[in-house]
Amino acid sequence: MSNSDPTSFLNRCRRSRSFLIGGVMTGFLLLCAAISLFWTPGSAYDIVIPDRFLPPSAEHWLGTDQFGRDIVSMLMTGTQNSIAVAVVAVSIGLIIGVSLGLLAAAKRGWTEEFIMRISDFSFAFPAILSAIMITAILGPGGVNSILAIGLYNIPVFARLTRGSANAIWAREFVLAARAAGKGKFRITFEHILPNVLSIIIVQATILFAIAILAEAALSYLGLGTQPPHPSWGRMLNEAQSLIFLDPWQAVFPGLAIATAVFGLNLLGDGLRDVLDPRLSRKR
Questions:
Q1: Is 51's pLDDT higher than 80?
Q2: CA trace torsion 134, 161, 193, 202 (10° rounding)
Q3: d(Cα 240, Cα 263) in Å, to the nearest integer?
Q4: How many Å apart are CA 191 and CA 37, to the nearest integer?
Q5: Where residue 2 falls among pLDDT bands split at 50, 70, 90?
């Protein structure tokens, strides 16, 4: 269990460079998404052919694309889409996966075996491949992308939760709770879940980054968010044929994806040290 002293927690936050840098990068991402809800420097949707391929200027900070759309505005609006897909997809995996993991650890026997074998079967298919297969069957679109990414996250959370919960079930305070007559359901929510929550939060942060990357990959392949809604992956797809004419159109969405994924990975690494300082001492 991590130290619950607020002062100690804040001190660990300040000492963790990964947490601070990742937090700033992730905060910037969230700020861009929030601002784009009510303001962007230009239009991310309007096609203005006379303004196509304009260089960076005071009016168009990063220039315009082949349809005359403002690139900064498209990047900012695309942030909304990436965050929305990632939040819902990770939430699906977290709620269902954690529930299955806790159930497997509490029930053991054939229940645990069945849940783990289903998880093993799911891991036979890589995340992107599974998402492509599901969206190819159900059709392209943001909702199907969320479903595809969320389904992949379920066995990840299930296995992590089950492994962590099994270790807690063997602890002395849990044995004492069982001796006091508490049922498995009550022990799970009073003792098991609070002790595995920090590990789940760290894993959710990492999977958030993977979900953003997966959404961009699906959009790049034409299976994710559909026009006219801006998407970082589709911006890359549209820019690939213009790489020699206007390479910046590919650079900017690529940097946005890299910054988001890198920032979230740093934040997850920092959260691991902050929430469980024992791991920091072992490294």
A1: yes
A2: -80
A3: 25
A4: 40
A5: very low
